[in-house]
Amino acid sequence: MIHVRPYVPADREFVLSLAPRLAIGIPPWRDLQQWIATAQGWIAGSIEQHGHKNMIFVAEDEQLVRLGFATVSHDTHFTGEKQAYVGELATTESAEGYGVGKALAQACEQWAREQGYRILSLATGAANEHALGFYRHMGYLDEDVKLVRLLDQK
Q: Quick one: which of 55, 75, 115, 123 could link to 85 by a disulfide (CB 3.0–4.6 Å)?
């Protein structure tokens, strides 16, 4: 049984410890340590804004072992439409495949509905096939594609 609850300050080290999980599937031209440090910054920012501009959810099992977390916040699409945005969603490696991500995604969806949003968006790496498959299975649709070109170093 997976239980999802709001973040409490005692969860801080746990959620920060999952920052490397947000680097799964990063492109080879990106610096892994810089990516992880940036993810830790995102998480720390979400912690600072928890309950104000965003919500953090923590999933745990029946023994209260933490299994993952997700953040969801208020956002605005470039068209001006208000929407909700999942900033981070990560589970422990051992929790993969047991419905933890689904429970966290559903908590974010419920929060977004309660805020009156009709759209919940998120972004993940193009090479993170596992996450892409998971989100598509949950009913998320492709909306944007971001492309990069590596320029010759001279």
A: 75
